[in-house]
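Technical note accompanying the year-one report. For the benefit of new consortium partners, we illustrate the data format agreed upon in the data management plan: each record pairs a sequence with a structure-token string. No post-processing was applied to the example shown here.
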Amino acid sequence: MRINVHNESATKQNPKNEIVKYAKQNNANIVLHVHTHLATFAFDNGVYLLNPGSASLKKGYDYKPSFGCIELCETKAIFKILSIEVFEKLTSDE
């Protein structure tokens, strides 16, 4: 299993196709796509696409903070996108 991180903005016409193309060019079957900060998971043309979202950066969207986890086993990979519940804001001046 080969994992790549894609941090560049893909083309606006079809970003999923561009990311899959990037994966194929780099012999990857898993791509972490982190540019949009929106949590998503997809499987396209033999490639798993995972965007873990963002633990803090909203980028103007109504969303819940999240992060991603990949557990690599001998014969499979398990993908999770986990929501973060924010209970209180902690600052150093309190």
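Partners are asked to follow this layout when depositing records. The first helix runs from residue 15 to 25.
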